[in-house]
Amino acid sequence: MTKLELKQALETILFVATHPLAPKQLAEIIGKVETKEIKEMVAELNLSYEKSKRVFRIDSVADGLQMHTLPEHKKWAQSLETVKTIKLSPAVMETLAIIAYKQPITRAGIEFIRGVDSSHTIRRLMQQKLVRIVGREMLPGRPGIYGTTKNFLEIFGLTNLKFLPTLTELDMGKLPGENQLELPLEEDSE
After folding, report:
1. Chain segment 40-82, per-residue pLDDT in tens
2. What Å distances lie between residue 94 and 89, 122, 144, 152, CA to CA?
3. 8 Å CB contact between 158 and 164
4. Which terminus of the chain, N or C, has fewer Cβ atoms within 10 Å?
5. If you ran DSSP here, which 8-state letter would residue 174 be given?
6. Is the distance from CB of 72 to CB of 171 less than 8 angstroms?
7. How many of the other CB atoms lie within 10 Å of CB of 10?
C-alpha cells in the first residue's frame, strides 16, 4: 500500500466513524501501519485541510481521533438536524461539574457540596451517558462512586480530564454555550 493509499484509508475510516478511534485501532483496521505513522498521517492530512481551507479537521478526542467540522461552520451541520441540542438545568450542570472536578465521588459527597438531594440529577446524567458508576465504596450499603464517561469527553471536546478549565478560568465569566450540549440523534439504547 502506498502512502497515498494509507492516507485515503485513514481518511475514509475517520469520515464514516461515529465515535473516536484510537490510533492503535486505526493501525489494526488499516493493517501494515504503525501507530506512529497514523499520527504523522493525521498531522499531514490536517495540514492539507488547512492549506485547502477545508471546513473540517481530525481532532484528538477522548483518547482517540475523530473528524470534526470547524466551529465556525457548525450552523450548517445543525441545519441537517444530525445533531440535537439539549438543555440541562443549572442543577444538572452543577452536579455534572462537581462529578467532573471531584471524581471519584459518592452521591453523599455530591449532596454535601450542593446541600440538596441529587439522586434525580445523577440519574439524568447517567441517562445522558455523561456519568457512570466507576466503583463501590466499602461502606454499609456499598454506595456507588461516580465519574464521567468517554461520552462526556467527546461532547466537551476533551482528550483528558486534565484539560478541564481551571476554577480561575471559570471565574472569569460564563463560558460560551453554557447549559447546552450537542448529542448525536442516534443514541445507544442501553
Report:
1. 999 999 999 999 999 999 998 878 899 988 888 877 777 776 5
2. 9, 11, 19, 14
3. yes
4. C
5. P
6. no
7. 25
The C-alpha cell that represents 186 in the structure block: 442516534
Tell me the sheet residues that pair with 69: 56
Judge residue 178's burial from the number of C-beta atoms within 10 Å of its C-beta, 0-12 exposed, 13-18 middle, 19 or more buried.
exposed
Query: Chain centroid to CA 96: how far?
Result: 14
Tell me: the pLDDT tens digits for 144-181? 999 999 888 888 878 888 888 887 777 765 554 444 55
Q: Which amino acid is at 151?
A: N
Residue ranges and CATH numbers for the domains of the chain are 3-72 (1.10.10.10), 83-184 (1.10.10.10)
pLDDT at position 172 is: 64
State residue 176's pLDDT score: 47
What is the three-class DSSP state of 18?
Answer: coil
DSSP state at residue 105? E
Q: What are phi and psi of 157, to 5 degrees?
A: 65, 35
